[in-house]
Amino acid sequence: MTNDPMKQAYDPARLVAEFDLLIARAGLRIPAGHRGPMLVEFAQLRAEMDRVHRRVNAAPLVNLLLPITEGRVEG
Amino acid sequence: MSFAQLSILETGVALRRGDFTARELTEATLSAIDASNDTLHAFIRVLPDLALAQAAQADRDFAAGIDRGPMQGIPFAVKDLFDIKGIETTCHSRRGPGLADANAAVIDRLLASGAVAVAKTATFEFATYGPDAALPYPLARNPWNLDHFTGGSSSGSAVAIAGGLVRMALGTDTGGSIRTPSSWSGTVGIKPTFGRVSRRGCFPLSWSLDHVGPLARSVEDAAISLQVMAGHDALDSDCSARAVADYAALLGRDLAGMRIGLARRLLQTATGDVVAGVERAAVLLQGAGAEVIEVDTPDLGDFGAVVRALLLTEGHHIHAATMRAHYNDLGPMMARRIALGAGYSALDYLAVQKLRRMLAEAVSTALSACDVLLCATTPRVAPHKSADPNPFDPAGPSMTNPFNVTGNPAISVPIGLDAAGLPLAVQLVGRLFDEPRLLQVAQVVERASGWAVQALPDWRAQAEQEEERV
Fold first, then answer.
1. Which of A26, B71, B138, B206 could anchor a disulfide with B342, C-beta 3.0 to 4.6 Å?
2. Which H or E run contains B346?
3. Average pLDDT of chain B?
4. In whole angstroms, what is the distance from residue B6 CA to residue B74 CA?
5. In Å, how far is B354's CA from the nearest CA of chain A?
6. Is the dihedral angle over the CA atoms B140, B107, B165, B424 positive or is it negative?
């Protein structure tokens, strides 16, 4: 296995374990038929969020003195 | 001619002239609903007692010389996410919130204007994902072709208008749920500026993305109904205290001196027919005196990532207790996607909020170079009902998501039909709180495209052929 922690995070077995842990922690019992498609979407979700973190971290700072919890900026 | 062929203003003139009463109009509407619903399934619940009482009040007011404005006596439909006192709110689910003990704020506004609530419309379960056939009520069907999706989640509201049953219906829009069914069902749908219309009494999906607005038969009808719906509500903390503009003020004016920004980057995944529709709209707008320029925007994928994260985390929180106790009572399409909200961390949520602000500032910059953006509402026309939509599908990012992220007002307007006879639409986007100019531009597209005279095919004949095949 690679020593790169980011690549390790995408090891399929680790992704599956993370998914099962998060669903259990949310208190959900999902039917077996849902688990397969949800795992695929979970992997896509994590990849998408990694792209978001990279994008946001590389971007110039947003003005954090303004609330960032909505898109609307009233003039 | 059916009553629904008259615009809201034309109906108002006829009511005030005594050509017919609000009661007669309401009875005709209820009959039309009854005659259509076995096929189109636009409505979950019809409200004859309530509607006839409201119509009688409108008639008494007319007789007494009390004029509450252009919506007085006008029937409208209500997406079944909005509370009406004494009526069950189902959210198209086995696990809906149940009997409402008060009206939603927007229902109060419409009833105070004399409008008549005739029925509650079908939606995707809790306005989430769909279409999902495993729900307690049937899916609304597209009258342009019964074998194609309506789009959602305000599916029944769009079908109620497209089918000629009402002129206006309430919708909600978290990622495109007013504009997508409007595009695929050939209606007008406007998502106003975030905070322009109160959401109190409307079941939430995502507090930071939810918008309330009208779907309507025409831009003018949308402007008139939005005028009644808009305004401050101290009990909705996101509701703006800004004065409400006159939404009909600019209707009918030409576009001299106006700049339209063609946002090609938002057309990345559009089919040829959809791009041709947008280009046709650009030509029509130029013909009305506008200058069309090209403007840059961020990629669609960035907006989609923001909407998915906010919708799934906030939606997960809203439905957490129900999912823990009654997961199997929810439709699979909603349940498995909203459950996925557990996959985001708090740091993910905040990173997405920061990206949201960056995207909002980029769109604001684009709109500083023009008055209104022009793009598409959906990448393609209404898909065949055999398709299985996947919200993470990179081949089909939503074209409506961007303006739930930014909060800008956005409207879907029909531009014509494709070769198969399915509606094509364009999306126009305004500056924050600049709905009057947005509606002005939208009406130019509507009029110049000739959409108003576009005839709906005979969906009853298609249904009969379907029955014969069965």
1. A26
2. helix B346-366
3. 95
4. 11
5. 6
6. negative
- Tokens, residue B239: 């509701």
* Residue B372, token pair as written in the block: 């209104």
In whole angstroms, give the CA distance from residue B107 to residue B81.
Answer: 11
Res. B367 pLDDT band, cuts 50 70 90: very high
Please tell me which residue in B7, B153, B157, B218 is annotated as part of the active site.
B153
Give the best residue of A15, A19, A23, A41 to mutate against chain B (max B CB count within 10 A).
A41
Nearest to A28 among B308, B323, B348 (CB): B323
pLDDT digits (tens, 9 = 90+) for B305-359: 999 999 999 999 999 999 999 999 999 999 999 999 999 999 999 999 999 999 9
Chain-chain contact of A42 with B240 (C-beta, under 8 angstroms)? no
Give the separation between CA B312 and CA B158, rounded to whole angstroms: 25
pLDDT in tens, chain A (75 residues): 567 777 777 788 999 999 999 999 999 999 999 999 999 999 999 999 999 999 999 887 777 766 676 666 655
CA angle B271, B276, B277 (to 5 degrees): 100
- Its pTM stands at 0.96
User: Are B121 and B236 in contact, with CB atoms under 8 Å apart?
Assistant: no
**Quick one: pLDDT at residue B3?**
84
CB–CB of A72 and B340 under 8 A?
A: no
Pairs of residues, one from chain A and one from chain B, whose beta carbons lie less than 8 Å apart? 121
Other Cβ atoms less than 10 A from the Cβ of B453: the count is 5
Residue B1 pLDDT > 70, yes or no? no
End-to-end CA distance of chain A: 53
The answer to whether the beta carbons of residues B77 and B166 sit under 8 Å apart is yes
Let me know: does B89 contact B81? Beta carbons within 8 Å: yes
How far apart CA B21 and CA B73 sit, in angstroms, is 8
Q: Which residues of B touch A66 (CB under 8 A)?
A: 357
Residue B389 pLDDT > 90: no
Partners of residue B207 on adjacent β-strands: none
Please give the structure tokens belonging to residue B220.
């003018």
Q: What is the ipTM of this complex?
A: 0.90
pLDDT confidence band for B99 (50 / 70 / 90): very high
For B357-371, b/e burial (b = at least 16 CB within 10 A) is bbbbbbbbebbeebb
Catalytic residue among B177, B183, B185, B218: B177
Enter the tokens of residue B205.
């999906």
Chain A residue with CA closest to B401: the answer is A71
pLDDT at A1: 57
Under an 8 Å CB criterion, which residues of A touch B?
19, 22-23, 25-31, 33-34, 37-38, 41-42, 44-46, 48-49, 51-53, 55-56, 59, 62-63, 66, 68-75
The tokens of B124 are what? 């995707």
Tell me the C-alpha distance between B158 and B179, whole Å.
Answer: 9
What end-to-end distance do the CA atoms of chain B give, in Å? 32
Mean pLDDT for the stretch of residues B266-291:
96
